[in-house]
Write a structure and sequence with these properties.
Layout (H helix, E strand, L loop, with lengths): L7 E3 L6 H8 L5 E3 L1 H19 L24 H12 L3 E4 L2 H16 L7 H13 L2 E2 L2 E3 L8 H11 L4 E4 L2 E4 H8 L10 H6 L3 H31 L9 H5 L4 H13 L18 H4 L1 H22 L8 E3 L4 E3 L7 H29 L22 H17 L21 H33 L6 H13 L10 H13 L1 H7 L3
Helix pairs in contact: 3-6, 4-5, 4-9, 9-11, 9-13, 9-14, 9-16, 11-13, 13-14, 14-15, 14-16, 15-16, 16-18
């Protein structure tokens, strides 16, 4: 099987973050390697032998959850799988965005292609075809406990494979059967184990988590750029960023942030040496390496966790043909992702917290080193950028509520058989909200800092800061009188999340 140009091939090594983003964001087609096809076929043949031998396998010839003790005759096993999908598709709330849905489909496909789930190759081919044809199931966001997997979200995904439910195709919301018909795809008829294999896993929380993480990396870049710009606007000193200070507290992430800030401010005539009037800066400026560095350290841990999970097998039971074994276990439990997402929430919320404090220093005439009050030349008649700081304050306060760890909560289900759950999907959804809020807070700091440096004289700023200001002004014109900034802020925040500012910062590295 020769890959088509631009195709992401799922093979025995699985995916990396770049592959995930290509498929999810850029809608690159997907192909499954011959080796993975063989692993799927071999595992299915093993399951068929197990069933022919009359062995009892959870969820194949038994009921689910508390009903696992109910043994079913062979003629009921197919109906069991369809009933499972239909009964579990009871999610509520607004639907996930199409990028999250694509992420769920891709990750479910990867998990099944590992060859431990017992599905037929046609199930893999069906998922791949829907992904490549742009058939995106309508999946409500709420209803997963994050253990036994993301049952409700994945059931909504699976309904469309059966020609039921609803899907988005070509931007239109239509019945699942119609979407398959338009793409020339026959609905799937489930056999033993396949319904359970489709919905038992952590793919909703992991897809949301990966998308949140990819945006968070770009928010980190924006935080460093905004911090550097604010330092110039407030005539800050570079002494706290000296290599020696970082060396004696040797967190590599702290040193990396300090190094980036020194690079961003190289050649600036606006930063100052400490003097009689100001010996040292406030914490929001002086402690940037320590605060941003701690968040960067957290992001690296989150990345490691997500990279493991995106290629993991997370359904139950699992089949091991080489061992002649079927094991019931708990790989569907979302605790690793739940903890990582709570960590991500806190780390990114802190980037927003310190950014809002820097924004306050830019607009507050008592703190902004002689800049106009609220960055308005005619303050009093005009409010200038006063209310942008209010918006930041509102968002960081909301983040503090969202950052409460979801993973410490649990509630029993299925007659107390499933008595500890992760709430990982809730945590991932909250993390994604916090990242979006942080991008907005950073957009506001960039608008204010760029305006402040205009007052100081852009020609005195560093080369990289001048590039950042030029980029900001593509979306937000310099202040020329009071006006609404809502659209400007939203567009700039979206551009941050897309990685545009990260690309500007990467030039000349």
């Amino acid at each position: 099987m020769k890959p088509i140009a631009g195709t992401v091939v799922i093979d025995e090594q699985g995916l990396d973050l770049a592959d995930f983003e290509r498929v999810v964001t850029h809608q690159s087609p997907v192909q499954v390697s011959q080796a993975c096809h063989k692993a799927v076929s071999d595992c299915r043949a093993f399951l068929d032998r197990v069933l022919d031998d009359g062995r009892i396998v959870y969820g194949v010839n038994t009921g689910f959850g508390k009903l696992a003790s109910v043994i079913l005759p062979e003629e009921q096993t197919r109906a069991l799988q369809v009933n499972l999908i239909r009964s579990h598709a009871c999610g509520v709330g607004a639907p996930y965005s199409e990028d999250v849905v694509r992420g769920m489909m891709l990750l479910r496909l990867v998990s099944l292609t590992r060859g431990y789930s017992g599905v037929r190759p046609v199930v893999v081919e069906m998922l791949m075809a829907c992904l490549n044809e742009g058939i995106h199931p309508v999946i409500p966001q709420q209803g997963s406990l994050g253990a036994s997997g993301d049952l409700a979200p994945l059931a909504h995904l699976s309904l469309v494979l059966l020609g039921e439910g609803e899907a988005i195709l070509g931007g239109k919301r239509i019945p699942g059967a119609e979407a398959l018909q338009q793409a020339g795809i026959e609905p799937l008829t489930l056999q033993a184990k396949e319904g359970l294999a489709l919905i038992n896993g952590t793919q909703a929380m992991t897809a949301v988590g990966l998308i949140a993480y990819l945006k968070a990396k770009r928010v980190m870049d924006a935080a460093n750029a905004a911090a550097a710009l604010t330092m110039e606007a407030l005539h800050a000193t570079l002494h706290p960023f000296a290599e020696g200070i970082q060396r004696v507290r040797p967190f590599p992430e702290q040193a990396a942030i300090a190094r980036d800030i020194r690079r961003y401010l190289a050649g600036s005539h606006l930063v100052r040496e400490p003097g009689r009037d100001k010996v040292q800066d406030a914490y929001a400026l002086r402690c940037i390496p320590q605060v941003h560095g701690a968040s960067l350290r957290a992001l690296r841990h989150v990345q490691e966790t997500l990279e493991i999970e995106m290629n993991a097998v997370t359904d139950n039971p699992l089949l091991f043909p080489d061992e002649n074994a079927v094991y019931s276990g708990g790989n569907f439990h979302g605790q690793p992702i739940a903890l990582a997402m709570d960590y991500l929430k806190i780390a990114v919320a802190e980037l927003a917290n310190i950014a809002e404090r820097r924004t306050e220093r830019l607009v507050n005439p008592q703190l902004n080193e002689g800049l106009p009050a609220f960055l308005a030349p005619d303050a009093g008649q005009s409010s200038g950028l006063m209310i942008l700081q209010y918006v930041s304050a509102s968002l960081v306060s909301e983040n503090k509520v969202l950052a409460h760890p979801a993973s410490v909560d649990s509630i029993p289900s299925s007659g107390n058989q499933e008595d500890h759950v992760s709430m990982g999907t809730t945590s991932a959804r909250q993390a994604n909200q916090i990242v979006d809020h942080a991008a907005t807070v950073l957009a506001i700091e960039l608008i204010c800092a760029a305006q402040a440096v205009v007052f100081r004289g852009v020609e005195h700023a560093s080369l990289i800061s001048r590039r950042v200001i030029e980029w900001v002004h593509r979306y937000v014109a310099p202040y020329a009188g009071d006006r609404s900034y809502s659209r400007d802020i939203a567009q700039l925040a979206d551009a941050i999340c897309r990685g545009e500012l990260s690309d500007v910062l990467a030039k000349g590295k």
